[in-house]
Write a structure and sequence with these properties.
Helices cover about 35% and strands about 25% of the residues. Helix 8 crosses helix 10.
Length: about 675
């Protein structure tokens, strides 16, 4: 409910205004799909709030100032009209005439939530769906013609200030209630008869009034004034009071008829006979009018321009969009309104970005764009944070787009520090045995097999220079994190293949791939061919665990150098396989039995790259599913599986901002079972 009261002051003083600006209920607002409820507990109330006309942001539209407070879950305001504009004068004039003015508020939304169920806000239980504005800031209060609440009423109270002629500076409010106390025995009919124009009051009327005046007024007069008060003075005061009472009654009746205006005869009749004040009549008339008309759909003007953290996120989303990150990808980090606002700002130049960040952190800036401005922007909190987050998202997008072979073949693990960590694995020993008649289950055993892994930190730094800022070259700056993302992804493969090709010695003193581990084929027959692949598959399937039992794991990946890629595809995917006849003239069926192995061909240039120790253009490998066996492990620090971008320390010799990217990573072999190497050539 919005309750508006205008108090007209005498003597040229400014009219006062009090009222209820918002009752805490639902509102239907333009641009909002569902009703809106503003949480008064989360509303920031400035000390002084502008009083506007119709939410118009014009100098002439500000008609006064008010202060706001929340009482009993209702937003109340008090203040005064200070403007002498035509709009202010019109509002005052219509209020005095009984106009139906109401109040409305303008607020900035800082935090909003869509509620689908029931929720109590402002002491009222609201049924969803509705938007719960959790945090907001009151910006202005407006006088409007129509509000949103069907039960809204407006009171117009004109209080006339009378000054005691005998004692300056002391005032009293004279209204209907005071009249009743001052003249309890004077009947309107008698006064009318005695005070017609040009008719002097009869002598007998004077004694009827005198006793009352003497009984109540004389002691007061004696207390305040000189003790010599004659009977004539008392009679004169009584006559003046009677005249004032008649005048007030006539004005009351005239005001009632003006308010009803012939449209509400029943209210007019009851008001005159029952002695209602104009305020009561106005309330009754307004209740009747509102009961017959639909409620308006606008009561509060909510402004959604972001501030503070909201603006920071909007700028950040705008920079991400400008760098080519799609809106779909940004939905993981920002809400829809932030992304939509960011689309409007995505053409923001770098110079403006620096200024906006200085504004956010309250750092003074000059109209020109000089070195001091750049240094000041670099010293802010917002600018490094925004650029770091944008660079992180760009790097992550590049990192995830780069194909990595090692992640297909290796398992992953988390390490807590940078020391060499022991990676223990429990292996069961012994088969399940029959349970005897006594129900006793035989003891089994486990053995502990150990491996190791260690994390190292890999990193690089890059700089957003003054030249890039002045040239508005955000694209050039973002090429660096893109390249860093690619290199971080490739680093995983580099570490994996470097370890794989070295064929390191294990804790048991034997090489990772060796005849002792029964996972190595050598000689001329180990070349990639129909027969060679069959031998490698058989060797893989014949591997046994610690107690000599088959590991029961099928090979899943066929890892080959690029020179053997197409041959590997021909061997594993064709429905038929035609081979040249040998000296033995053996007849082979026109069926590719290797296609049923469902091997996935994985090709990598690292296998034959001469920069790596142990490289070979003929060697190839079989790997099992890493979910079934730990062949190699990619270790990450405490679950952080992606590289990180953050602001570095600014070098005094460089006019710019340094950033660094680092990645904590380690790759080690864990188990010789679950993979087979074929040398592919004699020797």
């Amino acid at each position: 409910m919005s309750d508006f009261t205008l108090i007209e002051a005498a003597g040229g003083a400014r009219p006062k205004i009090v009222g209820t600006a918002y009752s805490g209920g639902k509102m239907s607002l333009p641009g909002w799909k569902n009703p809106v409820v503003v949480d008064l507990a989360g509303m920031e109330l400035p000390e002084a709030v502008p009083l506007l006309a119709n939410h118009e942001n014009r100098t002439s539209a500000r008609i006064g100032m008010v202060s706001a407070s929340v009482k009993n879950n209702v937003l109340e305001i008090t203040g005064e009209i200070i403007s002498e504009s035509s709009e202010a004068a019109d509002i005052v004039a219509q209020s005095k005439a009984g106009a139906d003015w109401q109040l409305s508020i303008g607020a900035d939304v800082k935090e909003c939530e869509l509620v689908r169920g029931k929720r109590e806000v402002n002491g009222q239980e609201h049924e969803g769906p509705f938007y719960h504005v959790r945090k907001s800031s009151l910006r202005e209060v407006s006088v409007v013609a129509v509000g949103a609440d069907a039960h809204t009423n407006m009171k117009v109270t004109a209080k006339f200030n009378l000054t005691n002629p005998e004692e300056e500076g002391e005032t009293m409010n004279e209204n209907k209630e005071i009249e009743a106390k001052a003249q309890p025995e004077v009947k309107p009919e008698a006064i009318e008869a005695k005070h017609e124009p040009e008719v002097k009051p009869e002598a007998k009327a004077e004694p009827e009034v005198k006793p009352e005046i003497k009984a109540e007024a004389k002691p007061e007069i004696q207390a305040r004034h000189e003790p010599e008060v004659s009977a004539e003075d008392v009679a004169s005061a009584a006559r003046e009071a009677a005249v004032a009472a008649v005048k007030a009654e006539r004005e009351r009746v005239s005001a009632i008829r003006s308010i009803c205006n012939g449209e509400f005869p029943e209210i007019e009749k009851d008001a005159i006979s029952a002695g209602w004040t104009p305020e009561v009549v106005t309330k009754k008339v307004l209740e009747t009018i509102r009961a017959e008309r639909p409620a308006a759909d606008v009561h509060i003007s909510v402004k959604t321009e972001p501030e503070g953290d909201g603006l920071r996120k909007t700028i950040e989303a705008a920079m991400c969009l400008r760098c080519g990150i799609s809106a779909d990808d940004l939905e993981k980090s920002y809400d829809g309104k932030t992304i939509e606002a960011g689309m409007k700002e995505m053409d923001m130049p770098l110079k403006q970005l620096l200024i906006e960040c200085m504004k956010l952190d309250g750092i003074p800036y000059s109209r020109g764009f000089d070195n001091e401005t750049i240094r000041a922007a670099f010293s802010s909190v917002s600018l490094p944070g925004i650029l770091s987050n944008v660079a992180n998202k760009k790097l992550l997008k590049s990192f995830e787009s780069q194909p990595v072979i090692a992640t297909k073949l290796c398992s992953t693990g988390d390490l807590n520090d940078f020391k060499e960590n022991d990676r223990f694995r429990l292996t069961d020993v012994g088969d399940l045995l029959p349970v005897g008649a006594d129900g006793e289950i035989k003891d089994g055993g486990v053995t502990e097999e150990a491996a190791k892994n260690q994390i190292e930190t890999y990193g690089k730094k890059f700089c957003l220079t003054r030249k890039m800022i002045i040239n508005d070259d955000l694209g050039a700056f973002m090429k660096v994190p893109v390249a860093m993302g690619n290199r971080a992804a490739r680093l995983i493969d580099q570490l994996f293949f470097s370890r794989l090709l070295k064929n390191p010695v294990q804790l048991d003193g034997k090489a990772l791939f060796s005849s002792a581990h029964k996972n190595l084929l050598t000689g001329a027959t180990s070349a990639l061919s129909f027969d060679g692949l069959k031998k490698a598959i058989q060797l893989f399937l014949d591997q046994v665990d610690a107690d000599g039992q088959p590991i029961s794991i099928e090979p899943k990946f066929l890892l080959v150098p690029t020179a053997l890629k197409h041959l590997a595809i021909e061997l594993t995917r064709g429905a038929t396989l035609i081979t040249a006849g040998g000296a033995d003239n053996v007849v082979r069926p026109a069926l590719n039995i290797l296609a049923d192995e469902n091997l996935q061909v994985v090709s990598s240039p690292y296998l034959s790259n001469t920069a790596y120790e142990g490289n070979s253009a003929t060697a190839w490998y079989l790997f099992g599913d890493p979910r079934q066996t730990d062949t190699f492990e990619i270790g990450f620090l405490r679950g952080k599986r992606t590289p990180t971008v953050e602001r570095g320390e600014t070098d005094f010799n460089t006019l710019g901002m340094w950033f660094r990217v680092y990645f904590d990573l380690g790759v080690r072999e864990q188990e010789h079972r679950g993979m087979v190497k074929s040398a592919g050539a004699a020797g």
